[in-house]
Amino acid sequence: MSQPAGKRAGKILMIVAWAAALFLATRFFGQWETRQQNPNREVQSEHGAGFIEVRLLGNAQGHFVVDGLINGQAVHFMLDTGATDVAIPEGVAQQLNLERGASVTVSTANGRTEGYRTRLDELALGDIHLRNVRALVVPGLDGEQILLGMSALKQLEFTQRGGTLLLRQNLK
Predict the structure, then answer these.
(1) CA nearest 116: which of 135, 94, 142, 96?
(2) Number of Cβ atoms within 10 Å of the Cβ of 69
(3) Are 96 and 77 spatial neighbours (Cβ–Cβ below 8 Å)?
(4) φ/ψ (deg, to 5) at 131
(5) Which of 73, 84, 128, 136 has the highest count of CB atoms within 10 angstroms of its CB?
């Protein structure tokens, strides 16, 4: 015995509604998870008399991660005040077409490894732009996240309060 056309259409609409609800929930929670890992995907800059400020929020693990640019190409940074230089995984350095300079021994949390000196023409966090930044290409560094070390951060003032980090570039 077949169902009336109205009942069949109602079932089809119910299935479509559930599918749409699942799709929207998946998108919402996917974006929520991304915001938890990097709440600084869209960097807001504030300009004042003689300075530019960028305010960063800590992620769910308490790290300060931010999307930025190296030589005009999009990258992902994690601020690391314990790192002497900006440290770039070798795969990312290849994508950025960075030259390998002199070989150096690098001490990391995983022990000692070999790295290579390089220079970044420009590094940008929002409207903060740093030029001629010393960096290291580190073959043993996994992932795509660049450690934003003191060779860049020493050019800025930074203050941490609670889960917020304020970076300030004083203009000359």
Answers:
(1) 135
(2) 17
(3) no
(4) -115, 150
(5) 136
Provide the whole-model pTM: 0.76
* Token pair listed for 71: 């030589």
Print pLDDT tens along the chain (172 aa). Answer: 566 766 777 777 777 777 776 666 666 555 544 444 688 878 889 999 999 999 999 988 888 999 999 999 999 999 998 899 999 999 999 999 999 999 998 877 677 888 999 999 999 999 999 999 999 999 888 889 999 999 999 999 999 988 899 999 999 7
Concatenating the DSSP letter of every residue in the chain gives: -PPPHHHHHHHHHHHHHHHHHHHHHHHHHHHHHHHHH-TTSS--EEEETTEEEEEEE--TTS--EEEEEETTEEEEEEE-TT-SSEEEEHHHHHHTTPPP-SEEEEEETTEEEEEEEEEEEEEEETTEEEEEEEEEEETT--SSEEEE-HHHHTTSEEEEETTEEEEEEE--
For 30-66, b/e burial (b = at least 16 CB within 10 A) is: eeeeeeeebbbeebeeeeeeeebbbebebbeeeebbb
